[in-house]
Amino acid sequence: MINGPRHGAARSKQTRPPVVSTARLTGVFVLFALALVACRGQVTPPPNAGDPLNVGQGGRGFGGNLGEAGTTTVTGTMAGGGGIGSEPFTPREAPEAWALWPMPNAPLPGLPNHQKYDTATVGVVVDQVTGLMWQRDVANTFMPFDDAQRECSRLRVAGHDDWRLPSRIELVSLLDMSRTQPSINLGPFPGAPSEWFWTSSVAADQPSAAWYVYFYAGYPKTDEKGNRFSVRCVRDAAPRVRPARHYDTRAGDIRDVATGLTWQRVAPDKKLPLDAARAYCKQLTLAGKKSWRLPTEGELFTLVDEHAAIGPMIDGVAFPRTPSEPFWSSSFFAGGPAMAWYVDFDHGFFNDTATTEKYRVRCVY
């Protein structure tokens, strides 16, 4: 099972400088210090002096602090060379917490919505399934959450200036779970690093934390905003029409209007190993429909309600009696037959485990 950093594990240690007693200062040094103050008016410390995050990840990135409500004040050198600034900043918000498009899948047999990308415009990648335009190349720069928001806001690529940090579900849509190191299609994203990448989605149960996606193996979790992670920015390639409602609800099944997926509303009580879970969905007849299947990990992740502070992290009206437990996906870990991915609706994470484990099942059509 793969595990990511939690609450500060990604930070590097900082060595505290030795303390020098003022009693040992010489009279000459004191006179020099007084003269310096008289000339400059004040002695200004370097940006983020004393900030333990300022040396995180080998000193990469820069520090920031919260200003007035709804703004972020950033002090330091911008990753893109933008100089020093401390003006108030309001980040662009992601459009929705839900997928507003079909969830792309790895190009494997039997799956809909295979990943498809357009790289005709220099510097960007257009996802032809989601309609999202992505920054193609990312800098080898790591920064805290607030600074990642600003980095995307100031980005200018391919003539566009409306870039933003992607939401949890938007960044998950880039995952290619048929591979690892990195878990992303290297055709449209050559040289993509196997790093942690920030999303704009704040953890509902802990406002000091936010969601990230780890592209080494391919999973999302949450961590403290002070950690330094990578950034890949996004924008809508064209104006988007949002559906008037999230779900079309019926007695036995429910349709996600935006993704086009139809779901089994009530999951069975019995827990099954992966092979039995696949067989159960294949044999299911529900609401007059046959040929149900086990969802991929990306499809299943579209059901996670990131606004839920406690489990189960799912719409309880749309999916009644859902337990705060792991649910199987059909996605094998890096294409191998021994390990597969599941989504845990207690915290909304997904992870991998042996296919012999017994987990809950919810089928998709």
Question: Any overview of this molecule?
Answer:
This protein has 365 residues and is of the alpha+beta class. It contains 6 helices and 15 strands. It has helices at 27-40, 56-59, 145-153, 168-172, 274-283, 297-301; strands at 64-66, 72-74, 117-118, 124-127, 132-135, 196-202, 209-214, 219-224, 234-236, 247-249, 253-256, 262-264, 326-332, 339-344, 349-354. The radius of gyration is 24 Å and the shape is globular.
List the helices and strands and how they pair.
Layout: H1 27-40, H2 56-59, E1 64-66, E2 72-74, E3 117-118, E4 124-127, E5 132-135, H3 145-153, H4 168-172, E6 196-202, E7 209-214, E8 219-224, E9 234-236, E10 247-249, E11 253-256, E12 262-264, H5 274-283, H6 297-301, E13 326-332, E14 339-344, E15 349-354
Antiparallel strand pairs: 1-2, 3-4, 4-5, 5-9, 6-7, 7-8, 10-11, 11-12, 13-14, 14-15
CATH topology of the largest domain, what is it called? Mannose-Binding Protein A, Chain A
Question: Shape from CA axes?
Answer: globular
| CATH hierarchy, class of the largest domain | Alpha Beta
What radius of gyration results from the CA coordinates?
Answer: 24 Å
Count the helices. How many?
A: 6
CATH superfamily of the largest domain: Mannose-Binding Protein A, subunit A
Order of adjacent strands in the largest pleated sheet: 3-4-5-9
Number of domains: 2
Q: How many angstroms does the end-to-end distance come to?
A: 29 Å
CATH second-level architecture of the largest domain: Roll
Helix content: 10-25%
Fraction of residues in β-strands: 15-25%
- SSE ordering: HHEEEEEHHEEEEEEEHHEEE
State the major sheet.
Answer: 4 strands, antiparallel
